[in-house]
Amino acid sequence: TTAIRMLCGLLKPSAGRAEVAGFDVARRPEQVKRRIGYMSQRFSLYDDLTVSENLQIFGTIYGLSRTVLRERMAEMFRKLEMEPLRDHFVGSLPPGWKQKIALSAAMLHRPEVLFLDEPTGGVDPLGRRRFWELILDAAADGTTVLVTTHYLDEALYCNRTLIMADGQMKALDRPRTLMREYGARDMDDLFGKLTR
């Protein structure tokens, strides 16, 4: 979460240097923010507004025209099967649905880079699979996606995996390459070997 907040330009790095979409995160945070989508670990939605109203606010913040916003919202409602929830207040929805709405809000403007901080937390197994379909679709369309997760099996969906523990980088490579290199039977085993 701390690393993602630094990469999003929300938290100034205490040391080192990082670039996102070609911009230094410490020197040009506003340029970074224009090019990213961010779904935080905690809900960033307004409970006292409807699903549609939340998406309209985020679309407006991202500078989408009314026409484009309407098209993108319809696309998200369809892809995530959220149409029946359009006029429900977000506060009345279960956590898994809130996660879907937050993902929609982060993806509305089709950012260059999409940061997802534990996007599948509190989501049922079928919902997790649907999330990953959307994430992989975004990546296939050219969006760079950085995901943090405690569901280590989700790392197998990724092109590269970074394993961190205690703020330190322990390994970075393709997930199956790392499992072979460390003689791990799965990602849980790999994490255990690297963090013991």
Please give a structural write-up.
The protein is built from 8 helices and 7 strands, in the order H-E-E-H-E-H-H-H-E-H-E-E-E-H-H. The protein is an alpha/beta fold. The strands form 3 sheets. It has a 3-stranded parallel sheet. Strands 1-2 form a two-stranded antiparallel ribbon. Strand 1 (19-20) and strand 2 form a beta hairpin. The longest helix is centred in the last third of the chain and has 16 residues, at 125-140. The radius of gyration is 17 Å and the shape is globular.
Question: How do the helices and strands line up, and which of them pair or pack?
Answer:
Blueprint: H1 2-7, E1 19-20, E2 23-24, H2 29-35, E3 36-39, H3 51-61, H4 66-79, H5 95-107, E4 113-117, H6 125-140, E5 144-148, E6 161-165, E7 168-173, H7 175-181, H8 187-195
Parallel strand pairs: 3-4, 4-5
Antiparallel strand pairs: 1-2, 6-7
Quickly give the structural class: alpha/beta
Q: What's the multimeric state?
A: single chain
The overall pLDDT average reads 90
Distance linking N and C termini: 21 Å
Brief account:
By secondary structure, the chain is an alpha/beta fold. The chain contains 8 helices and 7 strands, in the order αββαβαααβαβββαα.
Keywords for this structure?
alpha/beta, two-stranded antiparallel sheet, 196 residues, 3-stranded parallel sheet, 8 helices
